[in-house]
Design goal:
Helices cover 69% and strands 2% of the residues. It contains 7 helices and 2 strands, in the order αββαααααα. β1 and β2 form a beta hairpin. α1 packs parallel to α3, α3 runs antiparallel to α4 and α6 packs antiparallel against α7.
Length: 172
């Protein structure tokens, strides 16, 4: 990554953090589906991001959300888990011929057939860790699972909409 890419990633970080804290925070459907659009920042980092830096970014992003949400590290834990498993999910979804040299990890460059399984797996993992740690007991297992599935769908739809609205093919 060159300096332009670093500045662009910092800009995306600020945008996703601001979207989460100021706009999406209060978007809840039927007291079951919550949206955590900040996870898209971790999902859309470049392919060549080192695993250690990825863990640092995941933890830092989650910790900042925890500060704004006044939670005790559950977002940091969930984001770190996503950052840890991200390279494995990418390897799982690697096409037969591999990736192009400078391929961007966006919906437009990778296509929906690649992006949907990649994003859905990681968003579900994030939400499962987040909601099950928050519940801290298994007597609400099915309700927590419902929250996880509904929130995964809600977050995926918003991340996909953001990709279509703000990331054009000309910018990639």
């Amino acid at each position: 990554m060159n300096s332009r890419d670093y500045i662009l990633q910092i800009f995306y970080f600020v945008v996703y953090l601001a979207l989460q804290v100021f706009l999406v925070r209060n978007m809840v459907l039927f007291d079951v589906a919550f949206c955590f659009v900040y996870i898209a920042f971790i999902l859309l980092l470049p392919f060549d991001t080192s695993p250690v830096f990825l863990l640092f970014v995941g933890f830092s992003t989650g910790l900042l959300i925890d500060v704004f949400y006044d939670t005790l590290g559950i977002h940091a834990a969930a984001s770190t888990v996503v950052a840890y498993f991200r390279p494995y999910v990418i390897r799982l979804n690697t096409p037969r011929g591999g990736y192009e040299q400078n391929a961007r990890l966006t919906l437009q460059s990778m296509g929906m057939e690649w992006f949907a399984p990649y994003a859905l797996i990681l968003i579900f993992l994030h939400h499962a860790v987040l909601f099950f740690v928050e519940a801290s007991q298994f007597n609400l297992f099915f309700f927590t699972l419902l929250k996880t599935v509904a929130s995964t769908a809600f977050t995926f739809v918003l991340v996909t909409l953001i990709q279509y609205l703000f990331f054009s093919k000309g910018r990639n």
